[in-house]
């Protein structure tokens, strides 16, 4: 049996992943605004690829909640309503403390070294206002905390929720004055876990997620009033 079809399939997936990564970056950075139509032929021409990997990339972004594919309109950049934002953060509040409780006792010295490095870079990037790295470091920080939970389905769901929340996390940090609070609470989460105070860490994590969601909803409410 020829291996060519498998090779071509792998090549398409690799190209699709690269296209998805670049489109994801543009959406999260705000270069591609909510409601913007993403035309497959235009994107294929821009990236110098066929429409097949572009279509696969858009389907991946739809699964992440960044794009909606609508009948007769094709793909558009999605816009989360306040209700959707509330649902995202409520799901995080339910799942993440559970994962932390299961994982915290198994965190190693190497894990804590990695968490400390993330926190150091996080603080530097916040002060330098390098917005693009905020969400990436936030996602990495939370994933390291939960990595030993032994609950792959819940971990996969949370990883997707963190991805969907990425641009909103950046918005919350940059526009609602949440930078200093986030930095303090992340450091306290690590300290509590390191000292074996897992229940207190889980309680703080729930408060932390709730606070981010609440400040985002307040921002949306004030923004909608001003429009």
TrEMBL record:
Keyword presence, Acyltransferase: no
Entries under SMART domains matching the protein: FCD, HTH_GNTR
Alphabetically ordered keywords of this record: DNA-binding, Transcription, Transcription regulation
Residue ranges constituting the HTH gntR-type domain according to the UniProt record: 13-80
Pfam families membership: FCD, GntR
Gene3D superfamilies documented for this protein: GntR ligand-binding domain-like, Winged helix-like DNA-binding domain superfamily/Winged helix DNA-binding domain
InterPro entries xref list: GntR_C (IPR011711), TF_FadR/GntR_C (IPR008920), Tscrpt_reg_HTH_GntR (IPR000524), WH-like_DNA-bd_sf (IPR036388), WH_DNA-bd_sf (IPR036390)
Domain of life (superkingdom): Bacteria
Any one GO MF annotation of this record: DNA-binding transcription factor activity
Key word Transcription regulation present: yes
Protein name: GntR family transcriptional regulator
Organism of origin: Microvirga vignae
């Amino acid at each position: 049996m020829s291996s060519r079809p498998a090779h071509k399939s792998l090549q398409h997936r690799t190209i699709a992943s690269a296209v998805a990564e670049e489109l994801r970056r543009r959406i999260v950075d705000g270069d591609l605004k909510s409601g913007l139509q993403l035309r497959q032929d235009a994107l294929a021409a821009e990236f110098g690829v066929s429409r097949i990997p572009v279509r696969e990339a858009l389907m991946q972004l739809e699964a992440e909640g960044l794009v909606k594919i609508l009948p007769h309109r094709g793909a558009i950049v999605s816009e989360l309503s306040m209700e959707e934002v509330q649902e995202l953060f409520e799901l995080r509040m339910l799942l993440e403390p559970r994962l932390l409780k299961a994982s915290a006792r198994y965190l190693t010295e190497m894990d804590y070294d990695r968490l400390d490095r993330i926190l150091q870079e996080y603080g530097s990037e916040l002060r330098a206002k390098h917005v693009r790295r905020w969400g990436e470091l936030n996602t990495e920080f939370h994933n390291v905390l939960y990595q030993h939970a032994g609950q792959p389905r819940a971990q996969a769901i949370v990883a997707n929720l963190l991805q969907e929340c990425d641009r909103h996390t950046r918005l919350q940090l940059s526009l609602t004055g949440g930078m200093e609070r986030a930095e303090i609470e992340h450091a306290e989460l690590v300290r509590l876990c390191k000292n074996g105070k897992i229940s207190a860490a889980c309680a703080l994590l729930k408060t932390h997620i709730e606070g981010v969601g609440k400040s985002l909803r307040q921002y949306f409410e004030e923004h909608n009033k001003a429009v």
